[in-house]
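yo

u said u wanted the structure for the complex thing, so here. seqs first:
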Amino acid sequence: MSGRGSVVALCGGIGGAKLALGLSHVVPAKKLSIIVNVGDDFRHFGLAVSPDVDTVLYTLSGRVNPATGWGRNEETWRFMEAVGELGGETWFNLGDTDLAMHAVRTARLAAGARPTEITAAFARALGIAPAILPATDAHVPTVVETDEGVLPFQRYFVGLRCAPVVRTLRYHAADEAEPTPEVKAALNAPDLAAIILCPSNPYLSIDPMLAIPGLRYALATAKAPTIAVSPLVGGDAVKGPLAKMMDELGHARTSATILAHYGDLVDLLLLDERDAAEATDPRMAVAKTMMVTLEDRIALARACLAAADRLAGRA
Amino acid sequence: MSGRGSVVALCGGIGGAKLALGLSHVVPAKKLSIIVNVGDDFRHFGLAVSPDVDTVLYTLSGRVNPATGWGRNEETWRFMEAVGELGGETWFNLGDTDLAMHAVRTARLAAGARPTEITAAFARALGIAPAILPATDAHVPTVVETDEGVLPFQRYFVGLRCAPVVRTLRYHAADEAEPTPEVKAALNAPDLAAIILCPSNPYLSIDPMLAIPGLRYALATAKAPTIAVSPLVGGDAVKGPLAKMMDELGHARTSATILAHYGDLVDLLLLDERDAAEATDPRMAVAKTMMVTLEDRIALARACLAAADRLAGRA
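structre next:
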């Protein structure tokens, strides 16, 4: 495997992080960069919270809560209980140990560090070897326009549990943001062998990255096959509001919609074996995309890389 | 007792909070205002920390850690452990439940609330009936000039454990600060019966309040006896760096120094019974100032009020 070259994955939180974990078992650490959505980032209690970055850090360091796919394992909630006792806001759960990420991040941002540097230091501290790269060091908050008004992402996603009907998504300030030098370098690596769009929600996790012009350009011009994994299985999302959002946005809940959405950026879309009948486009192939065990994650990672190898004529 | 009138106490953290607790057992809640030092306040991890206010809130609500006199009882430290794991700053301990105070305070400050309003809401939430009043809503950070340079208060006090030799104390911005309307109203109450300067460190806890011109003026012109309790017992402080600081500042470690320091603001200084031989000034009297049990706290509160009654000719 080590002869293949470098691999870049783009992901959001839970589902995407699972495939990133699989890739980390298959790709040599120095050859793997995981570009992570920061559109969900927000301030809570004045603390800088970066949910997808933290989910990737927790997942790749073996610290993620396996029951939820986000937050830390063996977490305690004494802070939140005390916040509730004081009449503070309890709609966004912050575990006692999870809080440390936000607190240290906040202190380092105030001291002038870039999110990329802070994330790299966290990855080192947690024993993670692949590069975990925020898509940008800029603040590009996703805003959800709904039938209940314009909502900051976390208010929609966590506070209102995605109940409002989505009309449009806006990736605020993304058009003025730059990908980081580290992201550009990863996508421009001379030995780049594969780009993988993880099975994350396209609208909430991948699009906020694609909305950064320089990142989209780097993806579009990258000299390696781009493999996307469909986040739909049997016309539904494994987790999260994707299916509901597709309905609300007027899109059929099919992998064809996903492929059309990514358009020319993607060379191949992997669908779950259960959806084999949907694979009518030459740019579609079938794999076991439902990841329950670590072996599932590793197998899907291998399937993505094998597909890229085939497209690149390496296999 | 309820016929006496209203009582105002001024205090810092641990020792002062103990007498404030005693007073809360003796003075009807509606007649008791506790004015608290905010010179120790600072931001840590971006969170607004107000150590003396929190110590008073924890002490009066029965939540204080009895072993330390600060922080919360039955506290856990998983946040701090996780901060350490990430390589963050661990010199200032923030317990998992204590963190809630700072987080909710930070959010409410950002929403435009005054520290006084926030403290009142915390007191209500914690079941505290007397008024807990920050001396000012302004930021008046104490700065310690030492032989190791000019240090922010918490860096000196907690970070360096008071090791540097103190040359001067500065109460930054205090001369431009105003006492709150609530503090002024308490000190100007028509039925004011006693003002009590708790046995807090004069330089670190009481002077930052006296450095606010409007507060000092209100104290100086208040129409009630002012009783101070000496923080020295046997020429030493019960807790904290007071004795060391008095040496460094060139002051004899005697209650006479304390009385001279407060000057005309104080009508009577209560010394511990062990220091009876020091009570050579007509403005000195003896009481049991060492507070070990709740009964000690209550007894000292009664002694303060009785002294004020005598001075006012009420007894």
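The radius of gyration of chain A is 19 Å. The first strand of chain A starts at residue 6 and ends at 11.
cya
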